[in-house]
Amino acid sequence: MTLQQLKYFIETVKHGSINKAAESLFIAQPSLSNALKELEAEIGQDLFIRTPRGISLTTDGAEFLGYARQVVEQQALLEQRWLNKTPSRRLCAISTQHYAFAVNAFVNMVKKTDALEYEYTLREARTFEIVEDVKNLRSELGILYKSKFNKQVIDKLLKENHLLFHPLFTAKPHVFVSSTNPLSQKDKVTLADLEDYPRLSYEQGDFNSFYFSEEILSTEYAKKDIKVGDRATIFNLMIGLNGYTISTGIVSADLNGDNIVAVPLDVDDDMTLGYITHKDLQLTQQAKLYVAELIAVIKAYDVDINV
C-alpha cells in the first residue's frame, strides 16, 4: 500500500468518478482503475461499488477513507515540518440547513486557515440532501435540527444511512421578522399573532414532508404560505411582505445587518441543533476546526449549550 494509492483513492471519492479523478490527476483512466484494483486486492476488501452509472463507496470503503485521509494529512504535516515543503491544499465540505451561525463559523474557519491553498465547500441544502451528502461523503458533516415532532423520523433516517447526530445546543423557537414589522416590538408572539402575516419556509423539493421541514411547527395551518429556496430571498420577503419564519433565535448582525430581528414564540416546544457525521469516519483536522468555530459562535448567544 502506497501513499500514491491512498491519494488516488481519496481523489476518486472526491469526484465520484474514476474518469473525472483521472483527469484531475492527469493520468490515464486505465492506470487509475488498475491502481485502485491493486489496492483493493492488497487489503482484501472491495472499496467501491461499480455500476454503469458510476461508483459509490462500500461500507468498508467508507471506513477506509477515514484512515486514508488521516495518513495523507499526517504525511503532509511531516513534510511541512521536516522537509520545509509548502503545506498541502486544504479540503473541507459542509452541508447545512439555512442558519446564519453555520455561515459565521465557516467564515471564522476560513480566516484561521494557515494553508496557502484550500478548497472549501459550504452547501446550504434541503434536509434530505444534507443526509445524502454526508452519507455519500460529499460533505464531512451536515447541520440540521431535531424536535419532538421529527425526531423519530430523522433518527431512523440517520441510522439507516450509518450516520451519527452530535447535539450542539437547544433553542426555543423564535419568529424572524423585519425590524419594521409590528411584531418586532413585542416581547413574545403567539401563533394567533401570526395569522395575518405570510409564513415563509424553505421548500424541500421531492422530499417536501413535514418531517423534513426546516421550520418547527410546520404542521400548523397558515392562511398565507410562501415557499422559498434560499436565505437571501426569505430575508427579502420578510422586509418586502412583512413575512415571518420560525427558527432558532440566533440572528447574525454581521451577515444580516439590523433589518431582521428574532422574537420569542410562545409555544411549548424546542429545537436541538446538531451536526451529523458518518459513523465509520473520523473528521479531518479542518472539519474539527469548523466544529470548534461552531461552538465558539454559538456560545456568544443565550442558548443552552449541549457540548
List the helices and strands and how they pair.
Elements (H helix, E strand, L loop, with lengths): L2 H13 L2 H8 L3 H15 L4 E4 L2 E4 L1 H24 L7 E7 L3 H12 L6 E7 L2 H9 L5 E6 L4 H10 L2 E9 L2 E5 L20 E4 L22 E4 L2 H11 L3 E3 L5 H4 L3 E5 L6 E8 L6 H15 L4 E2 L2
Parallel strand pairs: 3-4, 3-5, 8-9
Antiparallel strand pairs: 1-2, 5-12, 6-12, 6-13, 7-10, 7-11
Helix pairs in contact: 1-2, 1-3, 1-4, 2-3, 5-10
Keywords: DNA-binding, Transcription, Transcription regulation
Family: Belongs to the LysR transcriptional regulatory family.
GO molecular function, one term: DNA-binding transcription factor activity
Give the overall silhouette.
elongated
Tally the helices: what do you get? 10
Please give the CATH class of the domain at 170-272: Alpha Beta
Low-confidence stretches: none
- The N- to C-terminal Cα distance equals 38 Å
Helix and strand composition category: alpha/beta
β-strand percent reads 15-25%
Question: What percent of the residues sit in helical stretches (DSSP H or I)?
Answer: 25-40%
Provide a descriptive summary of the structure in words.
The protein is an alpha/beta fold. Among the domains are: 1-88, Winged helix-like DNA-binding domain superfamily/Winged helix DNA-binding domain (Arc Repressor Mutant, subunit A, Orthogonal Bundle), CATH 1.10.10; 170-272, Periplasmic binding protein-like II (D-Maltodextrin-Binding Protein, domain 2), CATH 3.40.190. Helix content is 39%, strand content 22%. The protein has 10 helices and 13 strands. The chain has helices at residues 3-15, 18-25, 29-43, 59-82, 100-111, 127-135, 151-160, 231-241, 253-256, 285-299; strands spanning 48-51, 54-57, 90-96, 118-124, 141-146, 163-171, 174-178, 199-202, 225-228, 245-247, 260-264, 271-278, 304-305. The strands form 4 sheets. Strands 4-3-5-12-6-13 form a 6-stranded mixed beta sheet, sandwiched between helices. A hairpin with a 2-residue loop joins strand 1 (48-51) and strand 2 (54-57). Helix 1 (3-15) packs across helix 2 (18-25) and helix 1 packs across helix 3 (29-43). The longest helix is centred in the first third of the chain and has 24 residues, at 59-82. One of its GO terms (cellular component) is protein-DNA complex. Keywords: DNA-binding, Transcription, Transcription regulation. This is DNA-binding transcriptional regulator, LysR family. Pfam families: HTH_1, LysR_substrate. Residues 1-58 form the HTH lysR-type domain.
